[in-house]
Amino acid sequence: MAGGRVSSSSPSDLLQRIKGFVRSLVEDLSNDRPPSVALDRYRNYCHDPSGNCTCGDNLPNGKEIISVERESHAYRLLVLFRVLLIIQQLLQENKHGSKRDIYYMHPALFLEQAVVDRAINNICILLKCSRQHLNVVPVGRGLVMGWLRFLEAGRKIYCINSPSTVYPIPVCLEEVVDIVSVARFIIVVEKESVFQRLANDRFCERNHCIVITGRGYPDVPTRRFLCLLVQHLHLPVYCLVDCDPYGFDILMVYRFGSMQMAYDANLLRVPEISWLGVFHSDLQKYHLPDRCLLELTSDDKKKAEAMLLRCYLQKEAPKWRMELEVMLQTGVKFEIESLSFNSLSFLSEYIPTKIHDGSYL
Ligand SMILES: [Zn+2]
């Protein structure tokens, strides 16, 4: 539940709130007032260097007024109503649909998926609920393997019977129960290629662990699943990303959540996550040859400079911030896979050694 903002998000409560919302718009119209919607604004970081902000507390930060009087807002309101109608129908009929299904109901109006995604986020804020309460199910992208078993909608998902077999991460987390594991740690990897490498190396069998990937920027089910595992299993969690601004940003999404879904950050972030690598210092430590290094592009530099200003890095992760500064100063980046220049199985040694030596941040 989003920050404990409301007591219930049952379908009947949400339908009541939708009715109330529509009623207020009709009142606006019948009183000759241009209809407008006031949305609480949430953010998970700002650029205030003083550290005195309230980002991360899951509290609204002002309001955004969407008014039909402004041309760009009129389009947003139209999209919001259309998506709200679809969600109302899903709730009334107790059916589920994906974000993609919703997009394909009016592609000429919505133009692109991001427009629908934004409307869904706005509706969550408006109705004070989380996305799963709207009967909107994501299309899962995340993968898991390792020393783990659980029930998903009554089905036994026994990853542990074959710890190197890859399973999709469940999309309806409400249906996941009875999580059991004797793993020693959880490792989150940025990329599917690294995940596959670890599967081929039978990494989980050897290291009694659970491995997860969101295949790039993690989606909602991957982040919720990771939160669920951490809550139930109380295991240490480590994250392995490329040494570049995108890898760093992905790492931050796991730890702090994303700006788009800041209204639900408490459900979607893992503050306990440690950064295992790859660090800039691994360059010297593992004698990485120059041919494996790439120069930061101007876009990379802009992204890194903007990230350096985020308040949560100052407040909660100054050591991470320093690594980012080093990356920017040296102007080079490299991928996790480049560490395998000598041996394909290098990562299978690198990960346990780093955990054993405590060389993570
Ligand atoms: Zn802030």
Automatic annotation (TrEMBL):
It comes from the Eukaryota. Its cofactor is Mg(2+). GO terms for molecular function: ATP binding; DNA binding; DNA topoisomerase type II (double strand cut, ATP-hydrolyzing) activity; metal ion binding. SUPFAM superfamilies: DNA topoisomerase IV, alpha subunit. Keywords: DNA-binding, Isomerase, Magnesium, Metal-binding, Nucleus, Topoisomerase. The active site is at Y104. It catalyses: ATP-dependent breakage, passage and rejoining of double-stranded DNA. Residues 185-355 form the Topoisomerase 6 subunit A/Spo11 TOPRIM domain. Pfam families: TOP6A-Spo11_Toprim, TP6A_N. Gene3D superfamilies: 3.40.1360.10, Winged helix-like DNA-binding domain superfamily/Winged helix DNA-binding domain. Residues 76-136 form the Spo11/DNA topoisomerase VI subunit A N-terminal domain. InterPro entries: Meiotic_Spo11, Spo11/TopoVI_A, Spo11/TopoVI_A_N, Spo11/TopoVI_A_sf, TOPRIM_Topo6A/Spo11, WH-like_DNA-bd_sf. Its main location: nucleus. It is found in: Nucleus. GO terms for cellular component: nuclear chromosome. GO terms for biological process: chiasma assembly; double-strand break repair via homologous recombination; meiotic DNA double-strand break formation; meiotic DNA double-strand break processing; reciprocal meiotic recombination. Belongs to the TOP6A family. PANTHER family: MEIOTIC RECOMBINATION PROTEIN SPO11 (PTHR10848), MEIOTIC RECOMBINATION PROTEIN SPO11-1 (PTHR10848:SF3). This is DNA topoisomerase (ATP-hydrolyzing). It comes from Musa acuminata subsp. malaccensis (Wild banana).
